[in-house]
């Protein structure tokens, strides 16, 4: 198995798990070669000691012949929870709306197996589910209802059971893509607004913020929404300026083994040039400051 640098890995929607026990990093993503069309092979993971060289790809999910979905395997996010590893990811089949489902494994490198078919409503076109645990220890999933169904993409939160099997109650609308002044509509009438890639983070000052991505003036753009209540239900207020506006996004935060806060996104957003990118960053007065890009 070869070792690669980030520039050699064709992933969209990168997600990095830091395993303190193993002293390893695990990188997941939407496989670039067949992300938009064609039958999906599954999900791969790369493993690293230092964030510079990555060993892989390691197949971590390959669907059995009777698995219901065969394309649009997108945005895998992996969480360690009560002794196991769970992957939230998007799945679709012809004639069946896209969902966020859950896979499970005993190790971060898999193999992952089907766990919950869908945590999103069966008649909604959804994607990019991300886990959030509230102050009471209850798990929620934040996800996008796609613009192809609602035109102005929507962001929702739904409480889920502790075993990640089912949703609890109805999804709660948090905001719409057009609520951000830096979101740019597309399509013939410029009214198609995208919601992508939510990621929740509790700032050092206690503020709850959400990274999310959409189309902007210079291509794919990622900005910040802030919960005025500090709770998942909001209300959510959009920052007036995006965090990253130069054709990159779908970001998440992680802290290195040495304690450095980092952001990973894919950039550019043009197929097939998408690659994972890592930036060091810091918090100051409730704001993120992008530092240098890791090479």
- SS content category: mainly beta
Shape: globular
Number of helices: 1
Query: What is the averaged pLDDT score?
Result: 96
The portion of residues assigned to helices is under 10%
CATH class: Mainly Beta
CATH topology label? Tachylectin-2, Chain A
- Our measurement of the CA-to-CA distance between the termini, rounded to an integer number of angstroms, reads 21 Å
Number of domains: 1
Quote the beta fraction.
over 45%
Q: Kindly provide the radius of gyration, computed on alpha-carbon positions and rounded to a whole number of angstroms.
A: 18 Å
What is the helix/strand order? Answer: EEEEEEEEEEEHEEEEEEEEEE
Low-confidence stretches: none
Strand order of the largest sheet: 1-5-4-3-2
Described by strand count, sense and barrel closure, the largest sheet is: 5 strands, antiparallel
Number of strands: 21
GO molecular function, one term: hydrolase activity, hydrolyzing O-glycosyl compounds
InterPro entries: Glyco_hydro_43, Glyco_hydro_beta-prop_sf, Glycosyl_Hydrlase_43
Site (Important for catalytic activity, responsible for pKa modulation of the active site Glu and correct orientation of both the proton donor and substrate): 128
Organism: Paenibacillus algorifonticola
Report on this model:
The chain is mainly β and 295 residues long. It has one domain (3-293): Tachylectin-2, Chain A (5 Propeller), CATH 2.115.10.20. It is built from one helix and 21 strands. The protein has one helix spanning 147-150; strands at 3-4, 11-19, 24-31, 43-48, 54-61, 71-81, 84-93, 96-105, 113-116, 126-133, 139-145, 154-160, 167-176, 196-202, 208-216, 219-227, 236-238, 249-255, 261-267, 275-284, 287-293. The radius of gyration is 18 Å and the shape is globular. The mean pLDDT is 96. The record marks 128 as: Important for catalytic activity, responsible for pKa modulation of the active site Glu and correct orientation of both the proton donor and substrate. GO terms for molecular function: hydrolase activity, hydrolyzing O-glycosyl compounds.
């Amino acid at each position: 198995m070869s070792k690669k640098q980030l520039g050699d890995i064709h992933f969209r929607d990168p997600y990095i798990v830091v395993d303190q026990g193993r002293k390893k990093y695990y990188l997941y993503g939407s496989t670039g070669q067949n992300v938009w069309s064609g039958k999906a092979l599954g999900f791969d993971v790369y493993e690293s000691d230092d964030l510079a060289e990555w060993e892989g790809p390691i197949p971590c999910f390959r669907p059995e012949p009777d698995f219901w979905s065969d394309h649009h395997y997108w945005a895998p996010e992996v969480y360690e929870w009560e002794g196991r590893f769970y992957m939230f990811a998007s799945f679709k089949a012809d004639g069946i709306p896209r969902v966020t489902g859950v896979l499970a494994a005993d190790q971060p490198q898999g193999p992952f197996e089907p766990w919950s078919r869908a945590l999103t409503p069966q008649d909604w076109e959804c994607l990019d589910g991300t886990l959030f645990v509230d102050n009471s220890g209850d798990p929620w999933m934040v996800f996008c209802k796609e613009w192809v169904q609602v035109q102005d993409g929507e962001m929702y939160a739904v409480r889920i059971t502790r075993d990640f099997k089912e949703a609890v109650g109805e999804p709660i609308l948090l905001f719409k893509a057009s609520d951000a002044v830096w979101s740019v509509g597309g399509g013939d009438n410029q009214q198609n607004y995208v919601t992508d890639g939510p990621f929740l983070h509790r700032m050092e000052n206690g503020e709850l913020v959400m990274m999310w991505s959409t189309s902007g003036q210079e291509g794919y753009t990622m900005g910040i929404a802030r919960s005025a209540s500090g709770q998942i239900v909001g209300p959510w207020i959009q920052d007036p300026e995006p965090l990253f506006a130069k054709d990159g996004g779908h970001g998440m935060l992680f802290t290195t083994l040495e304690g450095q806060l980092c952001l990973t996104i894919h950039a550019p957003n043009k197929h097939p040039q998408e690659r994972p990118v890592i930036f060091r960053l810091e918090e100051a007065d409730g704001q993120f400051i992008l530092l240098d890009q890791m090479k």
